[in-house]
Design brief:
Oligomer: single chain
Number of strands: 11
Structural class: alpha+beta
Radius of gyration: 22 Å
Strand order of the largest sheet: 5-8-9-10-11
Strand content: 15-25%
Helix content: 25-40%
Order of helices and strands: HHHHHEEEEHHHHHEHEEEEEE
Number of domains: 3
């Protein structure tokens, strides 16, 4: 799809007139009209503003001419999983799992490989094959090639260790010791809990990336423990298979 068609489709789906869109990106209505007829295309700075207005990547605005992958884990990048900078703008080089709120969430390649292997292994791809594949691919990605430049000298890892210590100090009955935390996008872990008064509530933001893990209970059983945390809180819950029938065990502000 050409840029002119992409912009027209996004504008009309958003319910914006040409004049309303023009005001949001600081151009004239005539400029928007010329974009949509294909006479001109937005400049780089305007594309950045349009990307924020429509919450899509610049790659999408340009008709998706490039097939992009996360430069940390190698996952194909779609608009809905693109990472965010500190100001909330999209970062088109990374997925939400590897880059959130301007922070890289992995500094240990081996740890990332093990996380990826859990999702890649299956009938047609053994764990050994998945691990070998990731060991071959990751060193070719920009983040790992430029790690000394882009890394944070272990600051985020120190934060994770501190968080793990705080979680273990809660001594939740039946929950084994937390040894690691992975990046988890809210959309996939935002369970709905029923309160004593009968109301239901969700505690997470679908678009935010959190740190968390799933743990098998020490005493067996069919329910798992789920742990989620960030700078502001620690949440512990239990749930059945596929996140069914969740129960809140603990919600603590940090």
């Amino acid at each position: 799809m050409d840029t002119k068609n992409v912009l027209y489709e996004l504008r009309t789906k958003s319910g914006l007139s040409q004049d309303e869109l023009a005001k949001k990106v600081f151009v004239t209505r005539q400029a928007v009209s010329r974009w949509e007829t294909g006479e001109t295309v937005p400049n780089t700075e305007t594309l950045k503003l349009l990307s924020e207005v429509f919450d899509v990547s610049i790659n999408t605005l340009l008709g998706a001419p490039q097939k992009r992958v996360c430069q940390c884990c190698g996952m194909p990048l779609e608009d809905e999983i693109i990472g965010r900078n500190k100001d909330g703008s999209p970062n088109e080089d990374y997925c939400k799992w590897c880059f959130a709120d301007g922070t890289y969430t992995y500094s240990d390649m081996d740890e990332l490989i093990e996380v990826c292997v859990q999702h890649m292994a299956g009938e047609n791809f053994s764990e050994e094959q998945a691990r070998a594949y990731m060991r071959q691919v990751l060193p070719t990605l920009d983040y790992w090639k430029r790690y000394r430049e882009l890394g944070d000298d272990g600051e985020f890892e120190r934060f994770k260790k501190q968080l793990i210590g705080e979680i273990n100090d809660l001594h939740v009955e039946g929950m084994p010791e937390v040894r690691s935390l992975n990046a988890l996008v809210g959309k996939y872990v935002n369970l709905e809990y029923r309160l004593p008064n009968g109301a239901s509530v969700k505690f997470l933001d679908d678009g935010t990336t959190y740190l968390g893990t799933q743990l098998e209970p020490e005493f067996g059983g069919e329910r798992c423990f789920g742990v989620l945390a960030n700078l502001d809180f620690i949440l512990v819950c239990t749930y059945a298979a596929e996140g069914a029938d969740p129960e809140l065990v603990l919600y603590k502000k940090r």
